Task: structure prediction
Amino acid sequence: MVEAENANLFDALESGTCEGASGAVCVSTFNQDRVEHDAPNLNHRIVFDIYIEVHNLYKIAGWVKASAPEDNSFWVGVDGSVPWIWDLEDTNGVFESQLINNRGTGDENSPEVEAVSFLLDEGHHTLEIYLREDDAMLDRISLVPVELEPVAMLSMGQSVEVSSTFSAQYQAFNVVDGDIST
Result:
């Protein structure tokens, strides 16, 4: 877990007193009346430097507060990716954990991707959160490993050996095509 105020803060996004945030501090524009709807502005961002110890698929949760429909989104990018819109659900005036989504071709109430997953190798990574709508508040972030299930493969009339090169957690096994004679 990383507190937003401990990340690298640029220009309009600054730390300040936030009732209900951990340590009573969060990051926001604090009524500076700035919006960046068309594209992220590199001058107004939070940069998290993250070290990943285990190659895995992750989701990112942010503890956020969205006070109004016009104050409920950020731009987000990972490792230099093209930033996308993260729409926050109404938090009814309190901080709550929300997974980063991607509006994509959806809208603010129904994003294209409900919870974005990132395949991250061991090593250093960068998460950038940019100003989009003023007064959206960010308290902290946390990486959430995605539990992967073994994949079953089917074949017609043949047994197939399957293994995972992704993780030693999944050992090779045989799968059956449903024909009890094979």
Residues 150 and 170 are 7 Å apart (CA to CA). DSSP finds no helices and 14 strands in the chain.
